[in-house]
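Marked as duplicate of an earlier ticket. Keeping the data here for the record.
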Amino acid sequence: MAAINDLIAQVEDEVLREPLREEVDQLIYHCCKGLQETF
């Protein structure tokens, strides 16, 4: 799970400079929620 968190952090770092940050945060949130339900 740590690798996923690292990946998310990396994506967030790049997305912070973008205006779509809020939408991406929602997307990441839903992806994480789905992953937690899967495992």
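See parent ticket for discussion. The chain has a mean pLDDT of 79.
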